[in-house]
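Technical annex, item 7. During the second reporting period the consortium partners agreed on a shared format for inverse folding records so that results from different sites could be compared directly. Each record opens with the tokenized structure and is followed by the designed sequence. A conforming record, contributed by the partner at site C, is shown below for reference.
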């Protein structure tokens, strides 16, 4: 110890001895503001000074004790003489007597002063201990000795009675001071509980041997208490890794001191009830989250830190004190807290739309649960909550990828990727598992028929293979499939775009095996395992492709209908003008160009689309002829209509898409062809004679169809040929029409009766 420090401590001691007790606070504070460990050396010096004072007091008391007794005895004797002196003056006494009495007075004054000093010295050790050293327990023991041993010996003296009356007040003062210290302690741990919890959770992360791995399934984590052997193990870990404990971070001496004082004073139950009541209040405050906690991971981390800090302190109090808190009390607190925690996490996690934040929350819950499990608290309900958080993570991830898919679909121009050199080819192939032997043989200047690619549909590394595959299936079947279905139904998506979508989904279907391999590499679980969940990628893309194919057929038919609406036949024309209608030629040209796009489709899809278009066109033309709103049709109009059908047949015979055998595509117009041939040749005798025969030339002509069209022509003949009754040929034709109409009606009636 330096000379300067010794001198300073001596000055402080002198100031304490000579200063009023109310002003001693700043003086003592200077000791703690000095060098680190200086207060310990000061306490040693102060203890030595107190022992010196105690010895001096004891010596003084022993030295003056007999004099004090003699003085009291003499005072009693002088009392009678003093009353006699009241009757005469001092000047009446002899000088020698005056001198003797003066000396007696002086001696009495000295004895009186000594008595006051003794009382002061007797009182000084108690107040000194209480106010300066905070050694409350020692002070209580001293007061107990005074009260039970020393004061009864001199109880007849008034100063002892004063001391006896003062002791209860001093005890209450000690209780109040210790309770004030406890309140300061409670306020301190309330403010620093997050720091305590942060330290405990960080140590769990840093010390891998603390508990089970976080990825251990909750069903394999048995609920257990911390055993004696595990505590010893934790202590060993703490020694090896210098792990900080709650006692290292918090000074628990106010609790111990207050508990000891209340126990000595026989009021332990009051203290226990107060402590538990205050801690319950603090628990409710700790469990109350910030309103915006769900916005950042730091909000959740602070919430968990505060809770862990609270229960780490309670666990320490449980094991460091005898009955201040019990296991039943901590279990009650924990069960109340656990229900609140789960409710809070459910509510706040439901507000979260960021999957990364939900994943961070999941990791925090695992660390939080493992930390408290290490202190003996049951956490199975938290592990059950992880399943809900996992589902929440899946939902937010699906929503995120739904937006990603939508952005990809909206930004796509649905045209092939042009590749002009080998470098560009390799760059594209490196991002998508596409290999074409023919392209690599003939050269790179070819066009790829795909666009979008996603190389990481879902990655949840903490879950087992089955959960990963199920989540991936959700992504494929619900999110991606829904996005594709919505895309296909959008009005601005035309035939060319639909063709490209079919090509894209075909390539993605081929790429599903790479997704299977990707998951297998993550989980190391073979897809051939008996209970392994199968991926639904193939069915997802097949369904999307089938929907796109159906939409192609629908949109193609809608386009054909738009052209048909432009038809403007002059149904009463006398003769055809010898060339096909303009609207139909435009329609045929559209079908030819569309068929070129269909060549990029899989063969059956292109053939089905082309056949569907031809059938729809034939049906629309037939409906046009048989429209009930159309009352009259001339032979010239039939001739014009025949020219248009010939163009349709020429288109069908030109093999617009490869793969049709023979005249398969032309058969779409066979009903129209036979009907028109029947009317153009006027071959009713053959039709009626061969009707119902498999070899009939007009097998596809229904009697009701022929009847409807013939009646439209009959009405036209009546209207346009006013003088036809005067021409034999016209009269014969009209009779023939009427005869054929009757026979057709007979066939139609026979068909209806048979059915």
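Designed sequence (site C submission):
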């Amino acid at each position: 110890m330096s000379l300067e420090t010794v001198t300073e401590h001596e000055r402080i001691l002198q100031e304490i001895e000579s200063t009023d007790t109310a002003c001693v606070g700043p003086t003592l504070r200077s000791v703690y503001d000095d060098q680190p460990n200086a207060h310990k050396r000061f306490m040693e010096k102060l203890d030595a000074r107190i022992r010196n004072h105690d010895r001096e007091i004891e010596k003084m008391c022993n030295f003056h004790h007999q004099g004090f007794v003699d003085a009291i005895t003499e005072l009693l004797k002088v009392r009678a003489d003093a009353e006699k002196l009241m009757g005469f003056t001092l000047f009446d006494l002899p000088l020698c007597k005056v001198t003797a009495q003066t000396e007696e007075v002086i001696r009495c004054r000295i004895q009186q002063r000594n008595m006051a000093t003794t009382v002061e010295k007797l009182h000084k050790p108690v107040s000194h201990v209480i106010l300066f050293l905070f050694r409350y327990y020692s002070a209580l023991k001293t007061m107990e000795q005074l009260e039970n041993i020393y004061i009864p010996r001199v109880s007849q003296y008034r100063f002892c009675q004063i001391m006896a009356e003062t002791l209860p007040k001093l005890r209450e003062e000690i209780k109040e001071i210790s309770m004030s210290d406890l309140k300061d302690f409670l306020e301190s741990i309330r403010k620093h509980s997050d720091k305590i919890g942060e330290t405990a959770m960080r140590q769990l992360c840093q010390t891998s041997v603390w508990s089970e791995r976080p990825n251990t399934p909750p069903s394999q984590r048995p609920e257990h208490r911390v055993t004696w052997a595990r505590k010893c193990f934790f202590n060993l870990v703490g020694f090896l890794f210098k792990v900080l404990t709650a006692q290292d971070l918090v000074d628990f001496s106010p609790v111990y001191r207050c508990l000891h004082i209340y126990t000595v004073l026989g009021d332990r139950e009051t203290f226990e009830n107060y402590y538990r009541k205050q801690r319950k209040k603090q628990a409710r405050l700790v469990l109350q989250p910030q309103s915006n906690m769900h916005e950042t991971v730091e909000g959740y981390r602070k919430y968990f830190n505060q809770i862990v800090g609270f229960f780490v302190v309670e666990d320490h109090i449980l094991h460091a004190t005898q009955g201040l808190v019990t296991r039943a009390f901590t279990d009650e607190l924990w069960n109340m807290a656990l229900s609140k925690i789960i409710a809070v996490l459910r509510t706040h996690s439901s507000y979260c739309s960021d999957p990364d934040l939900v994943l961070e929350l999941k990791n925090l819950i695992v660390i939080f649960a493992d930390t408290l499990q290490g202190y003996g608290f049951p956490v199975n309900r938290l592990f059950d909550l992880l399943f809900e958080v996992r589902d929440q993570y899946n939902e937010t991830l699906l929503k995120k990828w739904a937006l990603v898919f939508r952005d990809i679909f909206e930004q796509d121009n649905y045209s092939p990727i042009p590749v002009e050199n080998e470098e560009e080819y390799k760059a594209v192939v490196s991002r998508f598992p596409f290999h074409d032997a023919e392209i690599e043989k003939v050269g790179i200047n070819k066009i790829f028929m795909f666009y979008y690619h996603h190389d990481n549909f879902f990655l949840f590394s903490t879950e087992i293979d089955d959960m990963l595959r199920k989540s991936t299936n959700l992504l494929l079947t619900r999110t991606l499939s829904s996005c594709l279905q919505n895309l296909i139904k959008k009005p601005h998506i035309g035939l060319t775009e639909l063709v490209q979508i079919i090509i894209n989904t075909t390539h993605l279907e081929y790429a599903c095996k790479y997704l299977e391999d990707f998951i297998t590499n993550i989980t190391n679980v073979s897809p051939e395992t008996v209970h392994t969940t199968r991926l639904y990628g193939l069915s997802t893309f097949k369904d999307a492709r089938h929907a796109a194919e159906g939409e192609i057929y629908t949109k193609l038919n809608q386009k054909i209908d738009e052209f048909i609406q432009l038809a403007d036949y002059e149904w009463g024309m006398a003769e055809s003008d010898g060339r096909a209608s303009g609207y139909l030629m435009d329609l045929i040209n559209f079908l030819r160009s569309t068929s070129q796009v269909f060549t990029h489709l899989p063969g059956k899809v292109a053939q089905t689309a082309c056949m569907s278009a031809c059938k729809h066109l034939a049906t629309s033309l037939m409906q046009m002829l048989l429209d009930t709103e159309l009352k009259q049709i001339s032979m010239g109009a039939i001739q014009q209509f025949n020219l248009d059908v010939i163009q349709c047949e020429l288109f069908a015979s030109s093999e617009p898409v490869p793969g049709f055998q023979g005249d398969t595509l032309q058969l779409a117009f066979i009903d129209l062809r036979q009907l028109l041939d029947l009317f153009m040749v006027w071959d009713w005798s053959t039709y009626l004679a061969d009707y119902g025969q498999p070899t009939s030339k007009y097998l596809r002509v229904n009697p009701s169809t022929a009847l409807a069209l013939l009646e439209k022509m009959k009405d036209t003949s009546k209207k346009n040929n006013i003088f036809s009754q005067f021409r034999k040929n016209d009269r014969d034709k009209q009779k023939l029409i009427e005869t054929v109409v009757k026979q057709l009606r007979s066939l139609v009636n026979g068909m209806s009766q048979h059915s």
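Strands lie at 417-418, 447-448. The mean pLDDT is 78. All partners now use this format for quarterly exchanges.
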